[in-house]
């Protein structure tokens, strides 16, 4: 089969509905949950604001448009290597310089929803990944690995989504060893349905925030606040996660999509 035929078949499958486009993106607006850092660590991203420029009125009689105020890491977003100190010296490490082919790739979805339903602090271990591989096959090089937790169902409440108390935030994520294991597999990046790519307790790990630290140290990418991973198969979906081409951008909100064969 020629490459032209592959593209033609894909277009036909999309048109017929044999391949479904699944939206993995949370709504982006003033009510979008945003990470809350303690003041001793650093400043927080600002609350999202949407301001009208005109709406079929004296400021623009035939058109409506807005201007926005938002952080690069707001809502469903992409983390570029330059986002973390460990990745600051890589070439092509910003949203405007990353090779665009890296924004598209096969998705491996590891379902941890049963574990996280009973344990907000659940950590995905290497043994957990290996158990998934035993059932579904090896994680191929060039894949995105996504941790399904159904955490996105808390998105209607910032308090439930951040899930913090006087001991800190409680949300699932990977161990440091898991990220090492996946990087050795040659993955493109790692994604979660939580506010960031690390677990809520990751600030106390060694090193702190290992998903951020090791992913970006190895010039890999992160995805956070994904939605509807329960609509993806363990293997077989194609992920499309193109950030805005922000000059020297450390990350970007994005419209994350998956192409999924319809059963």
Describe this structure in words.
This protein is of the alpha/beta class. The chain has helices at residues 3-16, 113-118, 126-136, 158-162, 176-185, 210-217; strands at residues 19-23, 49-57, 60-69, 77-79, 104-111, 123-124, 144-148, 164-165, 168-169, 173-174, 189-192, 221-224, 237-240, 251-253, 257-261. It contains six helices and 15 strands. The strands form four sheets. It has a nine-stranded mixed beta sheet. The two termini are 23 Å apart.
Which oligomeric form is depicted? single chain
Anisotropy-based shape: globular
Radius of gyration: 19 Å
Distance between the termini: 23 Å
Percent of sequence in beta strands? 25-35%
Poorly predicted spans = none
Write the element-wise H/E pattern from the N-terminal end onward: HEEEEEHEHEHEEEHEHEEEE
Tell me the number of helical segments per DSSP (H or I, 4 or more residues long).
6
**How are the strands ordered across the major sheet?**
1-15-13-5-7-11-12-4-14
Major sheet description: 9 strands, mixed
Q: What value does the average pLDDT take? A: 96
Helix content: 10-25%
Query: What is the total tally of β strands?
Result: 15
- Structural class category: alpha/beta
Q: Can you give me a brief rundown of this structure?
A:
By secondary structure, this protein is of the alpha/beta class. The protein is built from 6 helices and 15 strands.
List the helices and strands and how they pair.
Layout: H1 3-16, E1 19-23, E2 49-57, E3 60-69, E4 77-79, E5 104-111, H2 113-118, E6 123-124, H3 126-136, E7 144-148, H4 158-162, E8 164-165, E9 168-169, E10 173-174, H5 176-185, E11 189-192, H6 210-217, E12 221-224, E13 237-240, E14 251-253, E15 257-261
Parallel strand pairs: 5-7, 6-10, 7-11, 11-12
Antiparallel strand pairs: 1-15, 2-3, 4-12, 4-14, 5-13, 8-9, 13-15
Helix pairs in contact: 5-6
């Amino acid at each position: 089969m020629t490459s032209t035929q592959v593209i033609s078949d894909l277009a036909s499958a999309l048109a017929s509905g044999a391949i479904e486009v699944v939206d993995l993106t949370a709504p982006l607006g003033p009510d979008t949950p945003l990470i809350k850092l303690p003041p001793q660590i650093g400043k927080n991203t600002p609350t999202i604001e949407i301001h009208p420029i005109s709406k079929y009125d004296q400021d623009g009689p035939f058109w409506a448009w807005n201007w926005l105020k938002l952080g690069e890491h707001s809502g469903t977003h992409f983390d570029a290597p330059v986002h973390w100190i460990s990745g600051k010296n890589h070439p092509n490490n910003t949203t405007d310089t990353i090779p665009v082919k890296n924004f598209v790739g096969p998705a491996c979805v590891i379902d941890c929803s049963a574990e996280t339903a009973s344990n907000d602090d659940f950590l995905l271990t290497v043994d957990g990944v290996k158990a998934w591989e035993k059932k579904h096959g090896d994680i191929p090089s060039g894949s995105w690995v996504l941790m399904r937790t159904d955490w996105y169902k808390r998105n209607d409440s910032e308090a439930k989504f951040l899930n913090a108390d006087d001991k800190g935030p409680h949300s699932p994520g990977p161990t440091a060893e898991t990220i090492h294991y996946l990087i050795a597999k040659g993955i493109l990046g790692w994604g979660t349905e939580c506010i960031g790519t690390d677990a809520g307790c990751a600030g106390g790990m060694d090193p702190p925030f290992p998903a951020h630290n090791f992913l970006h140290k190895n010039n890999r990418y992160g995805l956070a606040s994904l939605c509807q991973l329960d609509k993806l198969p363990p293997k077989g979906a194609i992920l499309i996660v193109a950030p805005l081409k922000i000059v020297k951008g450390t990350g970007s909100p994005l419209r994350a999509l998956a192409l999924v064969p319809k059963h």
